[in-house]
Structures are given as C-alpha cells and as structure tokens.
User: Fold this.
Amino acid sequence: MATFLYKIGRLAFRRRHFVALIWVALLTLAGVGAASAPAAGSSSFSIPGTEAQKAFDLLEQRFPGMSADGATARVVFKAPGGEKVTAKSNKAVVEKTVRELRDGSEVTSVADPFTGHAVSKDGTIAYAQVKYKVSGMELEDASKDALKRAAQSARDDGLSVEIGGDALSAVPETGATEVIGIAIAAVVLVVTFGSLVAAGLPLLTALIGVGIGVSTITALANALDLGSTTSTLAMMIGLAVGIDYALFIVSRYRAELAEGREREEAAGRAVGTAGSAVVFAGLTVVIALVGLAVVNIPMLTKMGVAAAGTVAIAVLIALTLIPALLGYAGRKVKPAGEKSRLLGGGRAAAKDRPNMGTRWARFVVRRPVAVLLLGVIGLGAAALPASQLELGLPDDGSQPTATTQRRAYDLLSEGFGPGFNGPLMVVVDAKSSEHPKAAVTTVTDDIKGMRDVVTVTPPTYNAAGDTAMITVVPGSKPSSATTEDLVHGIRGAGAGITADTGAKLLVTGSTAMNIDVSQKLNDALIPYLALVVGLAFLLLIVVFRSILVPLKAALGFLLSVTAALGAVVAVFQWGWLSGLMGVEETGPVMSMMPIFMVGVVFGLAMDYEVFLVTRMREAYVHGENPGQAIVTGFRHGARVVTAAAVIMIAVFSGFIGSSESMIKMIGFGLAIAVFFDAFVVRMALVPAVLALLGRKAWWLPKWLGRVLPNVDVEGEGLRTRRDEGRRDPDQDRELVGV
Assistant:
C-alpha cells in the first residue's frame, strides 16, 4: 500500500493544477446541488419493530386523514394574578384567539379549552390544542407566523401566553463557539508548524471536504429524508478528522524535507507512510459509523452513513489535495524544526536537544507500572458516575427556560400536573373482538384502576367502530421511572385483555416511543460493540501484524469511552459544571448517546492508535529494540498527535454552544472522550503497556503472518529508495514550477 500511495502523492504533486481543478469542481457541483435542491422536510422518526411504531402504523391505517405525524401546538393561557381564565373578559380573549387559530390553511382542528375540558381545576390556566396537516419542519412560515401573532394578540389583551408542541420546530443553532473552536484549531496549527502557510493547508482542505460533504447532504436531504442533525454531525466529525488527517500528512512531509529530500519525493513519501495510517484510521471511523445500521433505527443509520461519507472525503482529500497544495506552497512550507521569518524563524532548531515527546516517552519506559496504575485508577474514577446512567429522549422540559416551549411545558405542569406533558396514547384494536365497544370499556376500566393514572379520556372510535384511541395522563413527568413502569404495566395487562375479549392493546405516544427507543438502543449496544470492535480488531491486526497491540487498543478504548460516559452523566444528569456548559435543565442522558459514543469515539480513538503506534512499528521493523521504538515513535509523533487531539477537542467543544440539547451533549461527550483517549490512554497507557510487553507486543503466530496480507503501513517498501530523492537544501530554488 505504501508504494501505491507514494505514487499517488507524487502524481498529485506534479499534476497539482489538475487535482485542484477536480476538487474545486466537486465543491462547486455540490454547492449548486445544495442551492437548487428543494427544502428538506421533517426527518421521519420511525422505530421498526417497536410497539409504539406498530400503534402509529395502525392509526394511519384505521384513522385515514388523521395526520398522526402532523405538527401540534398547545397554546397555553394563564390569567393575570388573582384572576381566573374563566372570567368573562379573559374567556372572551381565549375564544377570540381560538377563532384566529382556526383560519390557517394547514390547520386541521383547534380544540376550544372551554368545551374540551382543558381548563385547570383552579381556573387559572387553560390551553387550546392546534393540529396541522403537516409535520413541524414542513410547516410553512406563514402558519408559524399566524400562530405567533395569535399568541401575541392574547398577550396584548392581558393574558400570559406560551406555545408548546413541535409546531415551532427550528433548525438548531450552534452559536459563536463553533467559530471559536475553528480559531483555536488554527492557533494550534500555527504553533505546531511554525508557519502560517503550513497551518493553513489543513484548515483549507478540511473546510473544502466539509463543504462538499454537507452540501451533498443538503442536496439529498429531501430525497433521502435527512434531518438537520445529520448535516450538523457530518460537519462536526468532518472538520475534526479533516484537519487531523491533513495535519499528519503535512507533518510527515516536513519531516521528509528535514532529511534532505526533494519536495516531490517528500510529498510522495509523506503520502506513502502517513497516508497509509490515514487510510486505515479513516477505515476504522467509517466502520464505526456505518455499523450504526445494526441498531435498525433509520434516523441513526442515515446519520452514520452521512458522517462516514464525509470522513471518506476527508481521507481522499488528504491523499490527493494536500500533496497538490504542497506543490503550490513550495518553499513556504519549511522542513521540520524550522519556522517562518514572520514567526521568528530563519534558523533551524537545535537538533541535539530531545523534545518533550522524547522526554515523556523515556519517563514512561522507566516507570511503566506507576504510569499504568495511575492512568487506570484515574479513568476508573471518572467512569464511576456511568454506573448511575439513566437514559431518555429530550422533550420540551429540557429546553432552555428562555424558550416559549419550555415556559408552556412548565405552565401545563403547574396547571394539570407533571404527567400532562407526556400523555400515553392507548390504541385498542378490537377488529377481532365479538363486542368491540365492550372490549374498549374493559380496557378503560382496567387502566383507570392502575397506579399513577390521573386521567383516562373517553375513547375515540374510527368510522368502522373497530378501533379506539384512549388518552392516559400519568401522574409523573414523562422521563420518570414511574411513568415507564406504568407503560410496562398497561402493556402487561394487554395479554389478559386479548385472552378475555380478543382485542389487542398497544401503547404509543412520544413518551412510549422514547421508552421503546431506549430499550432498543440498550439491546443493540452489545451486538454493535462486538461488530465494530471485532472488525476494527481484525483491521488493526493487519495494520500492526500483532495480536496484543490491537487487543490493548480495544481495551484502552473501553476505558476512555466509559470514563467519557461518566463525565456526561456528571454534567447532564447530576448537574456538575452545568452552568459552565450552558445546561439549564438536568435529566436523563439521551438514549442514543452510549451507542453513538461507542461508534464515533472508537473510530476516532483508533486514529491516534494508528498514527502513534505505526511510527513505533516502523522503528521496530527498522531494527530498534522495543524501548527505543517507543521513544522514536513519540519523538516523531507525540507533538503531532497532541496537536491533533487539541484540535479535535476544540472543534467538538465548539458545538457545546448549540441550542439543541442533543448536539450540546454530543459535542461535550466527544470532546471529553478525545481528551481521555488521547492524553491518558494513547499518550500514557499505550507506551506503558508496550514497555511492559517488550518484544511480545509485536508477536504474531507464523501461520497467521503467512495468511495476512502485507499492507506495508510502515513504508518498508520505500526503503529501497532510501537515497533516492535526496537533495541539497540550497537547491530548492531549482524546483520546477515553484
């Protein structure tokens, strides 16, 4: 592989005009496609195989035209202090608002609070439920504006009015912190390379890659039913890996220049060696992201595939566009150890002084047991909160208190109880029952007698009279364990009801759907972990030609991801440092967070494993003893891996400022996971374990060595060119086209 990539690197360097033109054309094509594509609608959220989804499908079949997935809005009214909403003047305002709400072309129904029993017992709070034909993301701006105008008109007349539901759904905003993250990445690159031009290349190529990836997702969003979160995730991961992959290529290029090679030869060798690591690191990320398909949640699968596509683009750009741009940059990219004059350079750094990576590696090699114990104990302590992990999906109760959705949620809880914001929809399929209405009555009576049930509404029948909907209001808030027990209790009673009446009972609604999603994700975690880690383990055996090194890599990942989950629990569930992170409401951790972190963090963790350990493998193959190989790997790779980790942390941290709680949690989780994995696992535990194992670390059974393909990641095939391409540093001016 190294020889093949070496040829690609040299070709891209020579044919830089052609390569640059191809990537500019692809970026333009993707941009035009995104600009001309129809606006994306709401991403459908279906969970195949769950009871909640089966109930939704049944409702679509038995209640045609009901628009079960249509947007809803709850316009909540509260009377001024000391007054009741039922007072004559206040009632007139509410009724006028209801009439205004009914005028919308997309409105299917508006329930009057006074005829629909939607007034609190103390008479201070009421709500009008508005149903629409289309989903919240498909709702026209005119309908949203009409909803806001009606609410404002009621406010002007003296009532407090807030709007809940998904009718005002909007694309999440990331805020200025995303830009700050990129700015920090730029500073780190300048410090690492000592050159503005060299620092600018990874940023430029990463932005091009993300531009192509996100524009393509935008262009296909409507056709493939992709949500806004998909492009945000692709941007997050694409920026991080795009900068990192380019960073490793440019860094190796500068190292080759420092050894006295011609620039074209240096570009070829950089792509042949560091590029091999980029390819396999990218493959592990792609495997982890595409592997999310085993969960069988379409939305999660699409997010993973889209992000994997962006990673693949980042790999291709690192292998082709980076050497092409290095050709354009010429002597502006200095050999390793030199800085540009603008940054105080002009002279080579002292070569006899060991760098910090070398000093750290020597320290770890001398005291591997102490470093290993300290690292494992520290990560174990960070992982302790993960034992108290509670899973759920965000609702309006997790929104910032400044939003009208959150204030509506709080008003409804105040007026009607905490369970009112998470009603359960019980669907009774009595088509096979001899007495459908009697069966529905039996179900209603049984549910009324259950613990934590506050209200059971009269059943609503379809036109055929063989299917009924019953709304059940729990006494506890939607995300509570008590509400989850109630859902399981109703479902548990279904078997007996079916045996007695022939009717089937299904529980759905947003609360039941959240419970089903959490259960499905929990059930899929172990198979997913086995699939992803197993495939990556086999891949790393091929890369390192070792059994123990990949095993150590996988175990280290488990430590870092568990510690990261512990940090997520501490911040988002327990509220530690919540003010600093902008977390206004603590609660259960998002259901898909564990499995998502396993996938993404595993892929990213293997990046550092591949980049750092391939340097050690290269030194070992070239004749150094295991301890020397560790030091050599750190001398060449520690600075770059550190810079790459800081950049990833900065990029991910930039998304903590998002208005979407899901994006905020993902950004924090990935940032802290990269911190643990890069600085504790890869920079401390890995050299400590390798030092303890010695030559055994690189052991591979002979029979397996004969079976495995030799992908030559360490560039052994290029050693025949040891003296080819060497140059006199003073001959740079003779480069053609530079």
Notes: Residues 346-350, 722-738 have pLDDT under 50 and may be disordered. The chain is about 60% helix and 5% strand. The first strand starts at residue 72 and ends at 78. The first helix runs from residue 2 to 14.
